[in-house]
Write a structure and sequence with these properties.
Layout lengths: L3 H8 L5 E5 L6 H9 L3 E6 L8 H6 L4 E5 L12 E4 L8 H8 L3 E2 L2 H8 L4 E5 L4 H14 L3 E6 L16 E6 L2 H4 L8 E4 L13 H13 L6 E5 L3 H4 L8 E6 L7 E5 L2 E6 L2 E7 L8 H17 L3 H10 L8 E6 L2 E5 L6 H8 L6 E5 L9 H10 L2 E4 L4 H15 L4 E4 L3 H11 L5 E4 L12 H13 L3
Parallel strand pairs: 1-2, 1-4, 2-3, 4-5, 6-8, 6-9, 7-8, 9-10, 10-11, 11-12, 16-20, 17-18, 17-20, 18-19
Antiparallel strand pairs: 12-13, 13-14, 15-16
């Protein structure tokens, strides 16, 4: 049911000229919403129509104008509103000029937050967003809550917004691209960590961090921000939080948040102290996942969810697809798919999750990130490395630079594609070893996204005889 507040908001778009920049999965719901609200929509894309295949054809039945090709950003100052696609640099001269002319800018998440009647939990970070978001959704559902999960995970929630009533809970995984233009923040906002990422799109780490801060920057009285005390990048944001601040830590006892004491996770919220669960309940590998679960514990306390549901879900939860996902064991060699590790920090966390000897498959398209830390971790921990993609030489150089520090030589194999990489890794492995696909890079040099890369990896592993 559409509320009066929502009807009034939608009326603001009636008759307005709106440009939607980029015709893709996140903007198609925006186009449909704007048309339903009575806006005059122009869908713009730098690709020519034939390159969009069936995407633009799906919109041909709607009253939408199109603008294709290299001049798709021209004359934006003639619109009332602009909706750039996530990841489009907001300092492009055309966008800056339009803002200077008073043209408003938003995105699908901004629209959703303005319309949503339910409390919203927002989760961001350089690593761990999908695992944490998935856990929060599953635990809240187990607790009897009516939950909607979306954002950077699953399908866009904007088409569902009028079905989401005030007694529901929304859980959003939010990327820096989705956060950057926001003027409204979730009621409970979480920053899991901050490390270099997406520097092929963001102009600097400062800009990247400022985009992440939008998750809590516009909070209102009664809202909460949750930060990782152990991560310098996330913890440095504490002075920017306008409302109540909660922390979580593996190393330090806290008075407002969650921490590890012995073998238990303790939650202390405004003077109420309770053991949430035992570390022995956690099936997910890696200390980084303990941090994720600490954050989940604080969220559950703030959301009023009994820790019994947290314990029940955690005891059975073994991870999400493409995140240190066990694939198969072949001739005593265990294969893990961590294709979602698109940054060096994620790959390092995956490597540190195993005690067994590791044959690492890494490499992909370049996000302008440093591989120094990854090179040192490989030189210290990895048995053999198989590299592929555009970044193969850069990672190879980082390993060779670090080898002198650790006085050990790592065998490096360079493969043409993932099939060759899997075969080479299997040849390097012995019974008891782990073959880990944890690329530390995006996938766009060889695949449409990390999911396609992970699916092919799993197929190649399962075909091994």
């Amino acid at each position: 049911m559409v509320t009066r507040k929502q009807k009034n908001y939608m009326r603001e778009f009636s008759g307005k000229k709106v440009a939607v920049l980029g015709i893709g999965i996140s903007n198609i719901p925006v186009i449909r919403f704007l048309i339903e609200a009575g806006a005059k929509v122009m869908a713009c894309d730098k690709r020519e129509r034939p390159q969009l295949k069936g995407i633009s054809a799906d919109l041909d039945r709607l009253p939408v104008e199109f603008k294709f090709g290299k001049d798709y950003l021209s004359e934006l100052d003639g619109f009332d509103m602009i909706f750039p696609t996530p990841g489009m640099p907001l300092d492009l001269p055309e966008l800056v000029k339009a803002r200077e002319k008073g043209v408003l800018q938003s995105n699908e998440i901004g629209l959703f937050l303005d319309l949503c009647e339910a409390p919203v939990i927002g989760i961001t970070g350089s690593d761990g967003k999908t695992t944490t978001t998935t856990l929060v959704g599953e635990i809240l559902k187990a607790g009897g809550k009516k939950v909607f999960v979306g954002g950077n995970i699953g399908t866009p929630l904007l088409p569902e917004v009028f079905k989401i009533t005030s007694d529901c809970i929304v859980v959003l995984e939010l990327s820096s691209f989705q956060l950057q233009p926001l003027k409204k923040s979730p009621n409970i906002s979480v920053v899991l960590n901050l490390s270099p990422n997406h520097l092929d799109h963001h102009r600097s780490m400062k800009e990247y961090g400022e985009a992440k801060e939008n998750i809590f920057r516009h909070q209102r009285p009664g809202d909460y921000a949750i930060l990782n005390r152990d991560n310098p990048g996330a913890y440095s944001m504490k002075s920017s939080c306008p409302e109540k601040l909660m922390l979580f830590s593996r190393h330090e006892k806290l008075q407002s948040g969650a921490y590890v004491k012995g073998q238990e996770i303790i939650v202390d919220i405004e003077g109420r102290t309770e053991a949430a669960l035992s570390l022995g309940d956690i099936k997910l590998p890696g200390e980084h996942n303990i941090e994720n679960i600490l954050a989940v514990s604080v969220i559950m306390a703030l959301a009023g969810c009994d820790f019994m549901h947290l314990r029940n879900i955690i005891k059975e939860f073994t991870g999400v697809e493409h995140r240190i996902e066990f694939v198969a064991e072949k001739q005593g060699v265990r294969f893990y798919n961590d294709s979602g590790a698109t940054t060096p920090s994620r790959a390092i966390a995956a490597i540190e999750s195993f005690q067994a000897p590791i044959i690492l498959i890494a490499g992909g398209s370049d996000k302008n990130l440093s591989f120094q830390g990854l090179g040192e971790t490989i030189a210290r921990r990895i048995k053999s490395t198989v590299l592929m993609g555009h970044t193969a030489e850069k990672i190879k150089d980082s390993i060779e630079t670090a080898e002198g520090k650790y006085r050990r030589k790592v065998k490096i194999v360079v493969a043409e594609d993932l099939k060759e990489a899997v075969n080479a890794a299997f040849l390097e492995a012995a019974p008891g070893d782990v073959v880990l696909l944890s690329p530390a890079c995006a996938s766009f040099d060889l695949f449409s996204d990390y999911r396609a890369r992970g699916r092919q990896f799993k197929k190649l592993v399962k075909d091994i005889e």
